[in-house]
Amino acid sequence: MKTHLLLTLSLLFIISNLQSQTTKKFIDSGSVNNQFENLIKNSNKYQDYKVVKLNWLLKLKSNINDSIVASKEEILNATTTINNQKQIIDSLKTSLSTTKNEITTLKTRITTITFLGIDFEKGLFKTIMLSIVGGLVLFLLFFISKFKQSISITKQTKSNLKEVEDEYEEHRKKALEREQKVMRRLQDELNKQKKD
Fold first, then answer.
1. What is the DSSP string of 6-30?
2. Cα separation, 20 vs 185, whole angstroms
3. How far is the C-alpha of 127 from the C-alpha of 133, rounded, in Å?
4. CA-CA distance, 46 to 105, in Å (whole number)?
5. How many other CB atoms sit within 10 Å of the CB of residue 141?
6. Cα distance between residue 142 and residue 134, in whole Å
7. If we measure between CA atoms, which residue out of 111, 139, 116, 141 comes closest to residue 126?
8. What would the pLDDT profile of 4-51 be if each residue is shown by its tens digit?
9. How many CB atoms lie within 10 A of CB 38?
10. Residue 73 confidence (pLDDT)
């Protein structure tokens, strides 16, 4: 009976061992770390070694390869995205630089005035133009006053000329009268002398 009992117990142990091996199943979802943990936990022990089913190792290898391929695709996609963003950033930097140059040019145009091909600052240009206009106004006033003065002098001169002409005419008339008187006297004297 002892043998019988030993045989039954052995049989039960083998059946339970087989049953435990057949019910153990490899979990092939989740992270790679979880899959390794599951593999180690569900593997049979033999002395200091773990006995792992070959199909579980192959499945784990396949999962790891899939994870590596997926990671490489993510890295490639991330690299492509980074390169695209670098190109966008470079183009934006170029655009920003161009915009800054345009702003500088516009500020210069706002603060300067180009006259006869020469750039002047607005304040300086206004000062120069006001000085020129002021100078021209002063010259105009000077010439207007000189013109009025010359008109006044011309009128005075014409008036003086008229007076001189009148005096001359009067003097001529008097001189003519005197000459006529003298001529008459002379004639009278000549006539007197002829009669005598």
1. HHHHHHHHHHHHHHHHHH------S
2. 186
3. 10
4. 83
5. 10
6. 12
7. 111
8. 555 565 555 565 554 455 456 656 666 767 777 777 777 777 677 777
9. 19
10. 92
